[in-house]
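Please go through the protein record below and explain what the tokens say about the fold. Record follows.
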Amino acid sequence: MRIDIITLLPELIKSPFEASILKRGIEKGLVEVHMHDLRKYGLNRYNQVDDYQYGGGAGMVMMIEPLDKLIHELKAEREYEEVIYMTPDGETLHQGMANHLSTKKNLLIICGHYKGVDQRVRDLYVTKEISIGDYVLSGGELGAAVLCDALIRLIPGVISDETSALTDSFQDGLLAPPVYTRPADYKGHKVPEILLSGNLPAIEQWREDQAYERTKNRRPDLLKED
């Protein structure tokens, strides 16, 4: 997989890819992540990338010309299966979306800023708009990093135990059940006996029951039928 990220702040988004699972995926050659500084395509000697919005109103807007130049250059080198724009009014990121995107070969992510990008960029190039929640950040970089983490960890070989990702919360529509490790008794707080029994079918049933109960108590919206 290759991910290209268009950003005004490449130094902000680089750090997540220099540690932990994301770094491991890159070092294994399972994923490539490339940052593209939009200001290098800015206008005039000030490398301008934003301007006042037509019709008046507070806040600046990212201009179409610098984005058009960079996107055109990138698309000339490869075909992208999705051109993603990180925006608060996009579809909320969920596990099914991450699963789907993790199977793609080439993704292009645009990080918004200010009041957003000129609508013509969205109309001409963007194929998918994604939000990481109902709140506003100062830019799309942190959202892009969250998206990349969510899908890169699903690529076979990135996580040592590939079955681990398949048992995460939301993979089966439920939250994950409680988990325990040693010691079995810590200051009187004991691990449930069923987990020490060695009875694997009974343990799996316990986990399913616990996952359902946790979901019902904490996220009942996940259990609602369409």
